[in-house]
Amino acid sequence: MTLQLPSGVVFGEEYQKLVKHCKSNRFALPAVNVVGTNSINAVMEAAAKNGSDVIIQLSNGGAAYYAGQGLEDGDAAKLLGAVSAAQHVHLLAKHYGICAILHTDHANRKLVPWVDALIDYGHDYKKTHGVPLFSSHMLDLSEESLEDNLNESERLLKRAVELDMSIEIELGITGGEEDGVGSELDTIDNSRLYTQPEDVLASYDRLSGIGHFSVAASFGNVHGVYKPGNVQLRPEILRESQKHIREARNLSEDNPMDFVFHGGSGSEVSAIKDAIDFGVFKMNIDTDTQFAFAKGVGSYVDENPAAFKYQIHPETEEPLKKKYDPRKWLREGENSIVSRLEQAFDELGSKGKSVAS
Ligand SMILES: [Zn+2]
Question: For the domain bounded by 8-348, which CATH number is listed?
Fold first, then answer.
């Protein structure tokens, strides 16, 4: 039977069903980083237009930006911005007729208090609304020892489970940096760029009995877009990890682990397809949608330079109000995100596969 879920924000058991559904039907959902209502609305519009469900996520910097640059970029802004963005999605996603998964992105040790504060807030939210604020939070302690990483992941997963939530952890280092979290490519030992199957098994043994979690695995993926040839994607690392767990724990499932592909921008389609075959259900895309927004606005400015300098055209005396209205040029940025995401839904195979009813 095909899966059907009510449109709106998906979490808990329904989220896990959706993840399984993606994996068994060999497609993945894009997880798009957002920074404001323009990007959130563009993501929901793109999902609705393409008949796909979608993952909407905020980095700590994106959350602070959402709260507004007039607020000091501190703990309060990171918390309140994320809460505000999540509430926006809770209110609107169902009207777009899509299932949306709400996520936060990389939290290293310094940002763990941000995640704890979001879970605290989630308890209050659940008291009033009966549902958690987010579907899942990400913890990124990949720079620490496996033991420290799993200890903290266990503590946070226990907290998340109380709210019917999941977590995402990171094993192995994703190259590049995202909002101050991560490492410069040339400073890390190459082997650490690739997740080790025994580490994935250790996380399975430690966490699977507690609740649902996914793993951001490193198989040569990098945040940002660099010149071709800089990185070698090796999706077979994911296959090896799945096989290792399957055999070690005698599991019948093909791909027991739920993998996440970070640094998806600019990746070859064949590597994306392989990664999906080996259990990836979520691919993060940030850099390419940032560029799409800039490109859309940039073209508009190129075509209408006078509207960004004068209220009345100095030669034609045409009033330019209709052209400098922010709704005009911000919309061009939104349209451009929508087109870029159409490509993502295509490449990830999620087009027309929405489970929203
Ligand atoms: Zn990432």
Answer: 3.20.20.70
